[in-house]
Write a sequence for this structure.
């Protein structure tokens, strides 16, 4: 209590989008900040053009619209910090802002929600599976199970309703998003990364604030998990090196494990990645391991190896 009383009494202002997923993520982080630092946090809704118009537009405009609105608010000082889904952030570091924390990542995998509790393997040929993600579509097509991939858009709730309404047989979503909304048990299968590698950074959060506020950068740093930070750095450096955008059919996942080198304990990353053609007919799939503190070069060198094996040629292809 005395430590808290020493701090400025003003609550920290956490800028957030209004979507259910953003509010849930911000709420979790706000609670963690208060628990670990004793500082109160208030949520400040940031409304953008995308939020006030239709969800469809919000999706077309991409998450970029929201990310920049939150970042503008940070830079002009109308909020103190923001929480993003890390997979929605561009790979370039923003001027004037610091990635103060990458909290421990929960489950990074994709999940299937199918009718009648079915798994992917149980969905018969001709089943209609909805996803708006070229990465998910390409990997589903690569399985060659005869499913029809249907492009859909919308928030998590909207996408699940395609199945409950009977319009589609299944949809694929991030398990972490479902979990944050308290709907993880609606997944009928959590997809093995052997079949479906998640998006770089999937399941991880980014806690961002102005670099000029060094004491806030340090305060928020208590939320940081170095293993997760290294894992997502490797995944995102791979994506950047491939020069692939967030909508490219690229999957990447780095697992963190305790290893040993010359009798010394080291934390290791095991990075797996896929670049697929949109029709799933061709893919380059590779993996590499390396120490956590060389995460960036691990991602870069794996990308270089994938490019050497023709990855660039796959990314521009469209499904006829
Ligand atoms: N692109 C939308 C988006 N951004 C982050 C998540 C889920 C949470 C996460 O991956 O951290 C989702 C929904 C989804 O892909 O199903």
């Amino acid at each position: 209590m005395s430590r808290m009383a020493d701090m400025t009494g003003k609550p920290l202002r956490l800028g957030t989008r209004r979507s259910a997923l953003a509010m849930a993520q911000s709420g979790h982080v706000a609670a963690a900040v208060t628990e670990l630092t004793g500082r109160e946090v208030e949520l400040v809704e940031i409304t953008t053009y995308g939020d006030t118009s239709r969800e469809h537009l919000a999706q077309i405009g991409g998450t970029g619209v929201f990310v920049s609105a939150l970042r503008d608010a940070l830079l002009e000082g109308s909020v103190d910090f923001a929480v993003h889904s890390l997979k929605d952030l561009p790979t370039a570091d923003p001027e004037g802002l610091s990635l103060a924390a990458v909290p421990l990542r929960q489950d990074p995998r994709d999940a299937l929600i199918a009718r009648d509790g079915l798994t992917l393997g149980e969905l018969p040929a001709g089943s209609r599976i909805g996803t708006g993600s070229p990465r998910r579509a390409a990997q589903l097509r690569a399985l060659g199970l005869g499913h029809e991939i249907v492009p859909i858009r919308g928030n998590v709730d909207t996408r699940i309703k395609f199945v409950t309404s009977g319009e589609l047989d299944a949809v694929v979503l991030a398990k972490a998003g479902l979990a944050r909304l308290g709907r993880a048990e609606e997944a009928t299968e959590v997809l093995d990364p052997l079949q479906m590698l998640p998006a770089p950074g999937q399941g991880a959060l980014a806690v961002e604030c102005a670099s000029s506020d060094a004491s806030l950068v340090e305060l928020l740093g208590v939320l940081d998990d170095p293993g997760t930070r290294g894992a997502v750095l490797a995944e995102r450096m791979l994506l950047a090196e491939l020069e692939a955008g967030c909508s490219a059919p690229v999957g990447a996942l780095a697992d963190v494990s305790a290893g040993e080198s010359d009798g010394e304990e080291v934390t290791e990353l095991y990075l797996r990645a896929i670049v697929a053609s949109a029709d799933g007919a061709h893919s380059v799939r590779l993996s590499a391991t390396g120490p956590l503190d060389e995460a960036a070069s691990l991602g870069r060198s794996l990308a270089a190896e994938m490019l050497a094996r023709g990855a660039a040629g796959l990314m521009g292809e469209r499904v006829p």
About this structure: Confidence is low (pLDDT under 50) at residues 1-6, 55-61. The first strand starts at residue 12 and ends at 16. Residues 85, 87-88, 173-174, 176-177, 202-203 surround PBG (CB under 6 Å).
